[in-house]
Structure formats: structure tokens, C-alpha cells
Write a structure and sequence with these properties.
With about 250 residues, this protein is α/β, with parallel strands linked by helices. Helices cover about 25% and strands about 20% of the residues. The protein is built from six helices and twelve strands. The strands form two sheets. The chain has a six-stranded parallel β-sheet, sandwiched between helices. A six-stranded parallel β-sheet has the order 6-11-10-7-8-9, covered by helices on one side. The structure holds NADP nicotinamide-adenine-dinucleotide phosphate. NADP nicotinamide-adenine-dinucleotide phosphate binds near residues 30 and 51.
Length: about 250
């Protein structure tokens, strides 16, 4: 058995630890989006495979027997490629996916179908926005330059940002409610914008927004292909040992 673990999330790191502890051979794959990725207890490869064809080639030449897709719920391109390549090579595939966030009493959430729909949900009047969607898609807000945007990024931007009025802070999660409440207060934030990523490490901003009575505008997850989904490393291990051989 040799696993390809598609990573880039907290869950992927937990999965890597579980596989290593069980003595299962695996390779961890990063897209290469951050300068100093988290270390893993197994060999790491970095960078895209080159689309579906490249991933098929990788699966065939690396001796991969199973693929665990533990990419972010919004990494729809990688998940689609993994599904297609595994289908074509008959490689068993499972997605390790954290549950989406659900509103609690006191939350003021406004949902939109896609990240591209987020800017239109802001008021016309200048607002102070905590834009917690990562760096890749902030360009969709360029058409709404009247707002001030607070960005929290892992690495300092290497190119000029497509937004005029921004404050950038550098930090890597997990975050906590006290820290995020202080952050929203300090920057006089009026709106929190995010994707429904789920998970514990990034939900502090939602708890902070509730505590401060701030609206949260949240993009729904993309629909991903495949129906083999686990919500914990233990479920994936069970699949590896008892389900994958039967193609379950
Ligand atoms: P994406 O749009 O789904 O993927 C774009 C391309 O990046 C893929 O086609 C693939 O290139 C490459 N890629 C993505 N994940 C990879 C991996 N684990 N190993 C090797 N290549 C990978 O992905 P994304 O949204 O840019 O996310 C990139 C990475 O950041 C993922 O690993 C994801 O888990 C992590 N991440 C994403 C988000 C988010 O909000 N999207 C948040 C936190 C972390 P090729 O086609 O060349 O193979």
C-alpha cells in the first residue's frame, strides 16, 4: 500500500500523523502556495501534477495504490482532477472533508452561492471589511474600491495587491476568539467576509463576529465530485483497511 495524500489543510496534517503512526507508506503532496509549508512525518512532494494527465502519469509511475484527497473544501480544481485521474486508473479515492460551519443563535450570517458573489453583498457606502478568503481570489473585490479591506495572509504578498485600500497582517492559524475579537475591534471592522471552510482553526472570526454583533457574509462550498467522503482520519483508516479493496 502506498498512499498519495493531497494536502494543504489541518486535516491533511492530522491524516499524515495517523498514517505515519500506523506505519502506512505515504507521500504528502502540497500545491506549493506557501513559502514554508508545515513539516510532515513522511516524504513530501511540492507543486502541481500538470492536470489530469499529469496526475495519471504520477499515479502510474509512483506506485500509488490509494489517494486521500484532504485538500481544502474550496480547492475544487484539485478535487476534480483527483476524481478524474483515479477513475481513469481505477485507483481507490476518498475525500477527507471537514463539516461545514452552521450558524448558531446570535449569528447574523448572509450566505451567497460563490466567492464571486461576495462583493455584491456589501453595502454601497464605504465599509471596513475583514476579508478572510485567502489571497487567490481577492481580485473579485477590485470592482468595490470604496471599502477598506483587512487581509490576514500566511506570506507577505510578492506582487501589488489588486485592492487599493488594504491593511495586511501576516499570521498562520489556528486563531482564537479573544484574539479575533481584539483584531476586529482594533480595525473597526463592520463586515466579515469568508468562505464556508469549516473546521476549528478558522472559526474564531465567526465567534468574534457574533460577540460583536457583526454581519458575516459567507460563500457556500462548491459541489465536488465523488461520494466517498470521510470526516475523520479514523474513518479513512477504516476505509483503507476494510473498504477500499472492495471499491466501497
Ligand atoms: P485548486 O484551485 O483546486 O487547484 C489548482 C491547481 O493547483 C491544481 O489543479 C493542481 O495543479 C494544484 N494543486 C492544488 N492542490 C494541490 C496539492 N495538494 N498537491 C499538488 N498540486 C495541487 O487549489 P487551490 O484552491 O488553489 O488550493 C491550493 C492548495 O491550498 C490546496 O492544497 C488546498 O488544500 C490549499 N488551501 C486552499 C484553500 C482555498 O480556500 N482554496 C484554503 C486553504 C488551503 P495541477 O493541475 O498542475 O496538478
Amino acid at each position: 500500500m502506498h498512499i498519495l495524500l493531497l494536502g494543504g489543510t489541518t486535516e491533511a496534517s492530522l491524516m499524515a500523523r495517523t498514517l505515519a503512526d500506523a506505519g502506512v507508506q505515504a507521500t504528502f503532496s502540497y500545491a506549493g502556495r506557501t513559502l514554508s509549508p508545515v513539516a510532515q512525518p513522511m516524504p513530501i512532494r511540492v507543486g502541481g501534477f500538470g492536470g489530469v494527465a499529469g496526475l495519471i502519469n504520477y499515479l502510474r509511475t509512483s506506485g500509488t495504490t490509494h489517494v486521500i484527497d484532504a485538500t481544502h473544501p474550496f480547492a475544487a480544481g484539485m478535487s476534480a482532477n483527483a476524481f478524474a485521474a483515479c477513475h481513469r486508473t481505477s485507483t481507490p479515492l476518498i475525500r477527507l472533508e471537514r463539516a461545514p460551519w452552521r450558524p448558531q443563535q446570535g449569528d447574523d450570517w448572509r450566505r451567497v452561492p460563490k466567492v464571486e458573489d461576495l462583493p455584491r453583498a456589501l453595502p454601497d457606502a464605504p465599509a471596513r471589511v475583514f476579508l478572510a478568503i485567502g489571497k487567490q481570489q481577492i481580485g473579485v473585490f477590485a470592482s468595490h474600491p470604496q471599502h477598506h479591506y483587512l487581509l490576514r495572509l500566511v506570506d507577505a504578498p510578492v506582487a501589488p495587491l489588486p485592492l487599493r485600500d488594504t491593511t495586511v497582517i501576516l499570521a498562520r492559524g489556528p486563531f482564537d476568539q479573544a484574539g479575533d475579537t481584539a483584531l476586529l475591534r482594533e480595525h473597526r471592522i463592520t463586515h466579515v467576509m469568508c468562505k464556508n471552510a469549516g473546521g476549528a482553526g478558522a472559526r474564531a472570526k465567526l465567534d468574534a463576529a457574533r460577540a460583536l454583533g457583526l454581519p458575516v457574509i459567507m460563500a457556500d462550498r462548491p459541489v465536488l465530485p465523488g461520494n466517498k467522503v470521510a470526516d475523520s482520519p479514523a474513518q479513512v483508516m477504516n476505509w483503507l483497511h476494510h473498504g477500499a479493496e472492495r471499491g466501497v
